[in-house]
Design a protein that fits this description.
290 residues; alpha/beta; Rossmann fold; Glucose Oxidase, domain 1; six-stranded mixed sheet; 10 helices; globular
Length: 290
């Protein structure tokens, strides 16, 4: 995907970074430079005073959308990594020119709230996008993540994209993957950017979702017809839910809601954890009992 000497861009399409993120951001620059990459920052990464100061915006929505479009269209930019999360990516999506994006299928990475954007880009352009944050390179599992990144993004090994999953119901599932953060997926409901789901694997994870919130979110997916069309559901980590109610809590909730014919699998290898692998949205995945 990338090679030493490539130029990559860092953007923040969701909530802006704050002063306490500056040290980690400097370390991320150093790690990426150590991997041989030339790093360019968006001018809109950190929260500044805006016309609506209650929002954690690094810049107004149109400005952040324009910055993303410029990086995607720049032939010298080999990949774009979003390093934000939170709530505000929908404002960028409202101003993003999908025709520009479709003409320039630059690899794009983001996670959490960026579930909205990685799925919207895939839905409107057909390109494979990546649900993962490059900030994992400087988090608690950073050494292992740097190794996976070197092998898979700067090389051709599957390490960063390998998911070990266990079937909970059914003999297996296969199909292109869509989804990501449960709340992010639900933000796309009713919009033109909801990803195609028929015959696909729907991957879901959550950071702070309570049992009630996860239960309600799954029922919304059932009610809008998504769960009747998928080839299977793959549950990643549900951080707060599993911490407070046990490792099998997400699967127990899902089994109450999923149609009986829909296969269910679980993995600890994607979610908000610092050891999370990357999901390739739009790429094929197979999970079975072997």
């Amino acid at each position: 995907m990338l090679q030493s000497g490539d130029r990559v861009a860092l953007v923040a399409c969701s909530d802006g970074l704050t002063a306490r993120d500056r040290d980690a951001h400097a370390r991320l620059h150093a790690v990426l430079a150590g991997l041989g990459l030339d790093v360019v920052d968006s001018p809109h990464l950190f929260v500044t005073n805006t016309p609506t100061p209650a929002l954690r915006q690094p810049a107004p929505d149109p400005a952040r959308a324009a910055a993303l479009e410029r990086f995607l269209a720049d032939p010298e930019i080999a990949a774009v990594f979003d390093i934000s999360g939170g709530n505000l990516v929908g404002g960028v999506l409202s101003h993003l020119d999908m025709e520009v994006v479709a003409r320039h299928p630059t690899p794009f990475f983001g996670y959490s709230d960026l579930t909205v954007l990685v799925n919207a880009l895939h839905a409107r352009t057909g390109q494979v996008t990546h649900l993962w944050t490059v900030r994992n390179l400087v988090r608690s599992d950073g050494d292992a993540q740097v190794t996976r990144f070197r092998h898979s993004v700067l090389g051709t090994a599957p390490d960063l994209f390998d998911l070990e999953a266990t079937m909970v119901r059914g003999d297996g599932m296969a199909g292109a993957v869509v989804g990501g953060n449960l709340r992010g997926v639900l933000k796309l409901a009713g919009t033109p950017w909801f990803p195609p789901v028929r015959g696909r694997i729907l991957a879901l994870e959550s950071l702070n979702g309570s049992p009630d919130a996860v239960h309600a979110g799954l029922h919304q997916l059932l009610q809008i017809g998504v769960l009747a069309e998928v080839a299977g559901v793959l549950l990643g980590t549900f951080t707060a839910l599993q911490r407070d109610h046990g490792a099998d809590a997400p699967a127990r909730l899902a089994l109450e809601v999923l149609p009986p014919s829909v296969p269910l699998a679980v993995t600890r290898h994607f979610g908000h954890g610092s050891d999370s692998r990357a999901l390739r949205i739009g790429a094929d995945l197979r999970v079975d009992t072997s």
